[in-house]
Amino acid sequence: MKNDLNYFATALDSMVRKISSQGDFTTFDLHAKTGGYLTITDSITGNPLLISLISKINNGNDRKYFEFSQEKAQRLHNRKRKYSEKTSWESRDEEKMRFAGAFVFQNFIYSFSGFPELVDEAILFVAKLFIAPNKERLLLFQYIMDIYNSREHHEGLDIFNEIKDRWVVI
Fold first, then answer.
1. pTM for this prediction
2. What are phi and psi of 121, to 5 degrees?
3. How many angstroms separate the first and last alpha carbons of the chain?
4. How are the residues of the chain apportioned to helix, strand and coil, as percentages rounded to the nearest 5?
5. Is residue 155 predicted with pLDDT exceeding 80?
6. Residues 163, 126: Cα–Cα separation, whole Å
7. What is the C-alpha separation between 152 and 55, in angstroms, rounded?
8. What is the rounded CA–CA span in Å between residue 23 and residue 16?
């Protein structure tokens, strides 16, 4: 299990480095951001299993991203059973500094903070698709589409598609 989590972190790190170096996206602007923090927790207990710096943070917000990454995961863990939430988007509240960027899938909650919140979420989805075994990829893709389709304006779908189209074949 630990190797799978480290593999995910490595894939995400590679993706973040590539995204931050390209800068030619049409659906979002990174505002010169280059990295952030990944948190993976057990979806049942909420215990952190992995907290990792992804790429490098060049804007002095290391502590903020570290804390936001953990907050998103813990908030989703606390709300997923009671409200059947699948992402931190469902409980986001900008006034309280609670943002999107975490999702639950199977036994884990994946959370990232470092980019605009919908980019945080999309790169997690794409990284998970990228490393998913072929037999799991279609199920995961449908799960992600269900999440986007449940949103009133499909927030984040264009960002997800632009990033996905560069890395993953479904």
1. 0.93
2. -65, -45
3. 24
4. 55, 15, 30
5. yes
6. 7
7. 33
8. 11
pLDDT, tens digit, 9 for 90 and up, residues 7-55: 999 999 999 998 888 877 888 888 788 999 999 999 999 999 999 999 9
DSSP string of 99-110?
Answer: ---EEEETTEEE
pLDDT per residue over 53-107, tens digit each?
A: 999 999 999 999 999 999 999 999 999 888 899 999 999 999 999 999 999 999 9
* Main-chain dihedrals φ then ψ at residue 83, nearest 5 degrees: -115, 5
> Looking at the domain 2-167, which fold is it?
Beta-Lactamase (3.30.450)
Q: Read off the tokens for 119.
A: 């980019």
How far is the C-alpha of 105 from the C-alpha of 92, rounded, in Å?
Answer: 19
Who's near 100: CB < 8 A, 6+ residues apart?
Answer: 72, 87, 88, 89, 92, 117, 118, 120, 121, 156
